[in-house]
Amino acid sequence: MLLKICGAGSAGDVELLGAAGADLVGLWHGVPGGRADLSPSKLSALASAARRAARPRPVLVTFRRDADGLREALAAARIHWIQLHGYQPPGTVRALKDGGDGDGGDLTVVKVVHLDGESCPERSLIPAYERAGTDVFLVDAVAADGRIGSTGQPVDPGAVLGLVDRMSRPFLLAGGVRADNREEYRAVLEHPLFLGIDVDTAARDADGRLRADRVRAVSRGWRPVPGPEAGR
Ligand SMILES: O=C(O)c1ccccc1N[C@@H]1O[C@H](COP(=O)(O)O)[C@@H](O)[C@H]1O
Q1: Residue-range definition of the domain harbouring residue 7
Q2: Strands, E assignment, 96-223
Q3: For residue 102, which phi and psi values (nearest 5 degrees)?
Q4: Might you give the EC number(s) for this enzyme (predicted)?
Q5: What's the complex ipTM?
Q6: 151 CA to middle of ligand 1, Å?
Q7: How many Å lie between the centroid of ligand 1 and the Cα of residue 6?
Q8: Is 188 touching ligand 1 by the criterion CB < 6 Å?
Q9: I want to staple 171 with a disulfide (CB 3.0 to 4.6 A). Which of 36, 103, 137, 187 is the partner?
Q10: Adjacent-strand bridge partners of 142
Q11: Tally of domains within the chain
Q12: CATH at 137
């Protein structure tokens, strides 16, 4: 099971996340007004920090939809994963995967689909996102005021299952994932396409700083140590 933590703002954050067990780190770029939106040079610096440590692998997280600009940002920072967290159309996925120079096969595209209660605006587009080359879906919540990203708001497990049953690609679960709420999602975890979790709010303290103890708690909560029977 993969553990992704979103929103590193410094090389120290990246190192802390690697040491605490995160597999992937979200680096914000093209998130207007975001508290940790990174300039191109900062994005490159944090991606380098992640490469030096071998883990976590950097993921560019963005609301942007201009594939040319995004490809430039990815190439400059040497990042091979991108999370399209806004309402980008399937055409953005296709343009990224096709790539200007045919290197899209090297890029893992994560497309976020949003759950507003039971309803998902991208639901009917899932086959089109797959045809466009989406590698991984990410199911996240929409806040009551329409905000997306870092809502801290849990998604309904039944609504998640209803959505992922339409998919043939793996998916990550997000939206208010905490150290103590794995049991509520048991059926989601058991889905054959379940790939892992993506966390922001529960990894931070009251001042919004990423905290190693919180990341470790989420990791322990969602990746329990197998009992003596496991593997027999
Ligand atoms: O974390 C953010 O501020 C953010 C900004 C822009 C796009 C995505 C963002 N985070 C994503 O939010 C969800 C989880 O949030 P939470 O655990 O419910 O707070 C996750 O997919 C992050 O990648």
Answers
A1: 2-222
A2: 108-115, 136-141, 171-173, 194-199
A3: 75, 20
A4: 5.3.1.24
A5: 0.97
A6: 7
A7: 6
A8: no
A9: 137
A10: 148
A11: 1
A12: 3.20.20.70
In a domain, 228, yes or no: no
Would you say 43 and 29 are in contact if contact means Cβ atoms under 8 Å apart? yes
What is the token pair recorded at 96? Answer: 């990224």
Which pLDDT belongs to residue 167? 98
- DSSP letter for each residue of 60-112: EEE----HHHHHHHHHHHT--EEEE-S---HHHHHHHHH-TTS-GGG-EEEEE
Tokens of 163: 């959505």
Residue the block writes with tokens 């994005």: 43
- Predicted confidence (pLDDT) per residue in 24-47, tens digit: 999 999 999 888 799 999 999 999
Q: Which residues make beta-bridge pairs with 172?
A: 138, 196
227 found inside a domain: no
Does 42 map to a domain?
A: yes
Q: CB of 24 closer than 6 A to ligand 1?
A: no
pLDDT at 73: 97
Ligand 1 atom 6: residue of nearest CA? 149
pLDDT digits 0-9 by tens, 107-144: 999 999 999 999 999 999 999 999 999 999 999 999 99
From 197, 206, 126, 208, select the one nearest 162 (Cα to Cα): 126
- Residue to mutate (ligand 1; options 83, 110, 140; most atoms within 8 A of CB): 140
